[in-house]
TrEMBL record:
<dbReference type="Pfam" id="PF11365">
    <property type="entry name" value="SOGA"/>
</dbReference>
<dbReference type="InterPro" id="IPR027881">
    <property type="entry name" value="SOGA_CC"/>
</dbReference>
<feature type="compositionally biased region" description="Pro residues">
    <location>
        <begin position="1"/>
        <end position="10"/>
    </location>
</feature>
<keyword id="KW-0175">Coiled coil</keyword>
<dbReference type="InterPro" id="IPR049885">
    <property type="entry name" value="MTCL1-3"/>
</dbReference>
<feature type="region of interest" description="Disordered">
    <location>
        <begin position="1"/>
        <end position="43"/>
    </location>
</feature>
<keyword id="KW-0597">Phosphoprotein</keyword>
<keyword id="KW-0472">Membrane</keyword>
<dbReference type="GO" id="GO:0045197">
    <property type="term" value="P:establishment or maintenance of epithelial cell apical/basal polarity"/>
</dbReference>
<dbReference type="GO" id="GO:0016328">
    <property type="term" value="C:lateral plasma membrane"/>
</dbReference>
<dbReference type="GO" id="GO:0030496">
    <property type="term" value="C:midbody"/>
</dbReference>
<feature type="domain" description="SOGA coiled-coil">
    <location>
        <begin position="196"/>
        <end position="289"/>
    </location>
</feature>
<dbReference type="GO" id="GO:0005615">
    <property type="term" value="C:extracellular space"/>
</dbReference>
<dbReference type="GO" id="GO:0000922">
    <property type="term" value="C:spindle pole"/>
</dbReference>
<feature type="coiled-coil region">
    <location>
        <begin position="266"/>
        <end position="300"/>
    </location>
</feature>
<dbReference type="GO" id="GO:0008017">
    <property type="term" value="F:microtubule binding"/>
</dbReference>
<dbReference type="GO" id="GO:0001578">
    <property type="term" value="P:microtubule bundle formation"/>
</dbReference>
Length: 345
């Protein structure tokens, strides 16, 4: 190896040399202040992002609860309408029998006409009421979807600004390192490497937690989708397809009302399934963002390893522990990448 460097001459006045025993020169005060401001702003944006996520989850839960309540009400109304239809079919058969008797005898029954008019009025009122209720439920659903879309756009904007600030912070760190001399950089390399390793460990832990949370979300969304598909199959098994003919017992009733109601039910269930599909796509996009962050972390580690290889010829450079920690962090990065790949599939 190269011979050790000779010690610097003592400073006048009996003081020690500025290069031995004293901490390396600090980053300029203005640069440190900018870095602190960017960090505080980054923390503020993180808190705001967490609040927006919590608010969006709360709105989604409230919307789902309201939707379930409306669905239960519509089911009860549907049961009542089915009962009324059966009653009207029974009365219609009796009226047909009476009309045959009137055709045979030539005598018109006024009570029968009044009864049929009353039944027709009741059926119209029930149909109008159900139509208004379905329109109100549809308006609430559209409003909730618009609010969710606005919150989603705000979250995306906050994420973009957070990434921009992070990139600026990294650039400031690199420029501050380049402004220092070669000896100062060699002396301070270990401290910066330990700080970066700690930051990367924290980021890896955060990525693991995000991956676990996304696995739970994907499992929950899968269960919800399965439940909706089972409910759709149940509707089809009970009421049949929309294009299927009416049963024999209901052939005398009007088919348009039942067909319209079944179409509305199927449409609601299919829209719920589409919403779940969009949420899965959003989770995949978030997964890709995490993978991009891990790629940046890997590039940063490769740069650090190249820097360590460059200064390995200096005997006073203690990097044995740092190389082991870098290897360990690479293994963690590989593991988190594999988990992200599985989630994306």
């Amino acid at each position: 190896g190269a011979p050790p460097l000779p010690p610097l001459p003592a400073a006048p006045g009996g003081g020690r040399a500025p290069g031995h025993g004293e901490p390396p020169a600090a980053v300029p005060e203005e640069l440190q202040r900018e870095v602190e401001e960017l960090r505080s702003e980054n923390e503020y944006l993180k808190d705001e992002l967490d609040e927006l996520r919590a608010e969006m989850e709360e709105m989604r839960d409230r919307y789902l609860e309201e939707d379930v309540y409306q669905l239960q009400e519509l089911r009860r109304e549907l049961d009542r309408a089915n009962k009324n239809c059966r009653i009207l079919q029974y009365r219609l058969r009796k009226a047909e029998q009476k009309s045959l008797k009137v055709a045979q005898t030539g005598h018109v029954d006024g009570e029968l006409i009044r009864s049929l008019e009353q039944d027709l009025k009741v059926a119209k009122d029930v149909s109008v009421r159900l139509h208004h209720e379905l329109e109100s439920v549809e308006e609430k659903r559209v409003k909730a979807e618009d609010e969710n879309e606005i919150l989603r756009q705000q979250i995306i904007e906050v994420e973009v600004s957070k990434q921009t600030l992070q990139n600026e912070l990294d650039k400031l760190k690199e420029s501050s390192l380049k402004r220092r001399g070669s000896r100062e950089m060699h002396k301070e390399k270990k401290a910066f490497t330990q700080e970066d390793s700690a930051d990367l460990k924290c980021q890896l832990q955060f990525a693991k937690e995000e991956a676990a949370l996304m696995r739970k979300k994907m499992a929950k969304l899968g269960r919800e989708k399965d439940e909706l598909e089972q409910e759709l199959q149940k509707y089809k098994s009970i009421y049949g397809d929309v294009d299927s003919p009416l049963p024999t017992g209901e052939a005398g009733g009007p088919p348009s009302t039942r067909e319209a109601e079944l179409k509305l039910r199927l449409k609601l269930v299919e829209e719920e399934a589409n919403i779940l599909g969009r949420k899965i796509v959003e989770l995949e996009v978030e997964n890709r963002g995490i993978k991009a962050e891990m790629e940046d972390m890997r590039c940063q580690y490769e740069k650090e390893c190249l820097s360590r290889d460059h200064i390995a010829s200096i005997p006073t450079s203690p990097y044995g522990d740092s190389v082991e920690s870098a290897t360990e962090l690479r293994r963690h990065l590989q593991f988190v990448e594999e988990e992200a790949e599985l989630l994306r599939r």
